[in-house]
Amino acid sequence: MIVVTTPTGNIGRHVVRHLLDAGEALRLIVRDSSKLAQEVRDQVEVVEGSHGDAAVVDRAFRGADAVFWLCPPTPAATPAAATVDFARPGAAAMRRHGVRHIVAATTLGRDTTWHERAGNATGSIHMIDLLRTTGAAVRGLALPAFMDNALRQAGAIRQGKMFGPIDPDKKLPHTATRDTGTAAVGLLIDRSWSGQEDVPVLGPEELSYADLAAIVSDVIGREVRYEHQTYDAYKDAAMARGLTDEFAQGYVDMLRAKEEGMDNVASRATAIIGATSFRQWAEEALRPAITSGP
Questions:
Q1: What are phi and psi of 223, to 5 degrees?
Q2: Which of these, 42, 66, 119, 254, has the minimum number of CB atoms within 10 Å of its CB?
Q3: Using CA atoms, how far apart are residues 181 and 169, in angstroms rounded to an integer?
């Protein structure tokens, strides 16, 4: 039995689909089961509730062989509360029920100079440290920025703009959520691995945000420019969306670490390299979102 958290999320939905296609027995933890397609509900066990709830994870992890773990976005919390504290009940339940394999989404940055000063990324790394205390074999899927984040700027892109505080010419790795899901599924199906380590999941190329804007321009057929924000402006905008000061600062610290090179340290020789290029992703996911919008 494999338990999947966040089964309706950007990564979790890919994990569920591929595991069902492979004929795996699944138990899903979901806050609102009505968000699951009927064809999915017909093939899985469902435990309704939050996987930050001790009673929910106690039911869900009983008899489980493996778990796909991802902390959901919790924008009102501190970085530690959104990651380590959220995961405490789950880690205790996995330890209690003897879960043997955990595949968890995390960030790049472990064992680098940014390990303890990368804001939200640091919280995610510490969450993996907590999961390692369960005694299970653990693989942290260490992720850079998602290509899919561009969908959050669909309105701005329609106006010819993309925004961000990272230097326009800083080349960074990016990955598609679907490739992250594929990487997770490979580890969940073939559980011959042991030990505890993080494995980078990277896209096939490193691109700057100026590069991304140029590709988006080409794909949608009109000019889009990357507008470089200050970190103060970025933080102010994040707080205006409802983030706490500490959580917004966590994003600032994480993005500064990326700009300084945190995500460039990962070795491609030992990483899982996704098949999806940013251009392919933009053609298949972003262009329809832009052209179908107002």
A1: -65, 135
A2: 42
A3: 29
Residue 84 tokens read as 């380590």
First vs last C-alpha separation in the chain:
44
Which residues share a beta bridge with 138?
Answer: 102, 196
The amino acid at residue 8 is T
- 115 to 32, 108, 136: CA distances (angstroms): 35, 9, 23
Q: What is the pLDDT along the chain (294 residues), one digit of tens a residue?
A: 999 999 999 999 999 999 999 999 999 999 999 999 999 999 999 999 999 999 999 999 999 999 999 999 887 678 899 999 999 999 999 999 999 999 999 999 999 999 999 999 999 999 999 999 999 999 999 999 999 999 999 999 999 999 999 999 999 999 999 999 999 999 999 999 999 999 999 999 999 999 999 999 999 999 999 999 999 999 999 999 888 999 999 999 999 999 999 999 999 999 999 999 999 999 999 999 998 755
All domains of the chain, ordered by start, with CATH? 2-145+175-203+265-274 (3.40.50.720)
